[in-house]
Amino acid sequence: MTKVHQDHPVPPTRQDEVAAAGSELIGGPWGRFARSGGQWLHPVRVVALVAIGMFALGMVQKLPCYDWAWFRGAGSQYTHACYSDIPHLYVVRGFADHLTPYFDRLPGDMEYLEYPVLTGLFMQVAAWLTPGGGSMQHREQIYWMVNAGMLMACAAVIAVCVARTHRRRPWDALLFALAPAFVLTATINWDLLAIALTAAAMLMWSRGRALACGILIGLATAAKLYPVLLLGPLFVLCWRAGKWRQFGAAALGAAGSWLLVNAPVMLGAWDGWKKFYTFSQERPIDFGSVWLLISQRSGLPLDNANTYATLLMLLLCGGIGLLALTAPRRPRFAQLAFLVVAVFILTNKVYSPQYVLWLIPLAALARPRWRDFLIWQTCEVAYFLGIWLYLAYTTSGDKHQGLPVEGYQLAIALHLLGTLYLCAVVVRDVLLPERDVVRRDGSDDPSGGVLDGAPDVFTLGHAARAPRYATPSQGQRVEWGVDPRP
């Protein structure tokens, strides 16, 4: 007989030994006869509140900078590990002087704002909400607080979307809400806006709303470049499942919404609009990248880093596509999304500390195991501390206080190895789907939408094709490989 699973949340303490051990702080693992706390303590609501609380804790961590370190030389904000771009760019990108992003030229070498259009709008809205009176320090503080409030709303959206994407596993979103790197990096820059739109896009895809997913991917790409990469996994998965109409809707929705947001600035301020793209192309090797590590260790300038990074990125993405088409079972959307974004981060010319935020929600959906997640997060926290201590060293002059270059190289290596480790266990889950914790209850792809339970129509090599039968009714899962037909 077919094994059917009802749509009840899966308590993480029953499947994850680390979660079970951690639950001792609040009374121990979920028991057989335990009852939920009712509608008010719904898992999604709890996860959102935890995310907001942890975000607030991250704001407290920035308190030394908020009080004085942002305004009294560079070194203190590095030694306290509380740096943020937000108050500094309020001044140096013209928001304090009421300049219009992309349309008004900036003093200095930057010329125009170097952020995508939707992020520029986010920054401008925060500037409009910042009162103009008082000292410049006070205005910078208020601007950071306004941005923090808006970014906190984005964090809550991410938590809700991640919790709702896998219907039976809402508690996996605690991996995002409790991630140490989330606490430390949430208010360094404006990345949470693009991440919130990306998380909402994945939620829409999981509900079978391909066009809405595409529109949100387009908007997310208008805020940060990386979300467009999600169209790659959707392409190969829809190819394997024969879902071309749904992929076409997502691709057209993404192109249309991106163009709708960008067109007014493209037409009215072309030089300002293209600054983000020219800056990304011309930017030299910078902090945190594998290329910086290679350059520093070898002494080579790596003048062609753009070419090397692009070729390596394309090669690895091709490998991910091949993996998707040859795997014994069609990979889950979240798994491929994580791998593609991780590859982009690993091959990029720069790795800013807040880039880890791009991966945290994807990791929670791709590999919801606390042990592996915490191993990776430990490496990322080490890098977070390493870069600030290294910058403190470079700004301390003859005092040489902080982390020398050799220590910073170790921090980069830890970041790279931690990300590669998590990629490796995700690839292992793809190749050995019986080890995928999400599929242990008989689920196929809870974030897959139209892909969930769909049969394969195209594979390569010895990939096993799914039996051709209808997807179970919503809220149920059929054990893989069991044909319910008499």
TrEMBL record:
Coiled coil: none
Keywords: Cell membrane, Membrane, Transferase, Transmembrane, Transmembrane helix
Bilayer disposition of the protein: Multi-pass membrane protein
TM region(s), chain numbering: 40-60, 142-162, 174-203, 209-237, 249-270, 307-326, 333-353, 373-393
Domain of life: Bacteria
Xref: InterPro entries: GT87 (IPR018584), UCP010361 (IPR016570)
Subcellular location: Cell membrane
Pfam family, any one: GT87
Signal peptide (residue range): none
Family: Belongs to the glycosyltransferase 87 family.
Full protein name: Glycosyltransferase 87 family protein
Organism whose genome encodes this protein: Streptomyces antimicrobicus
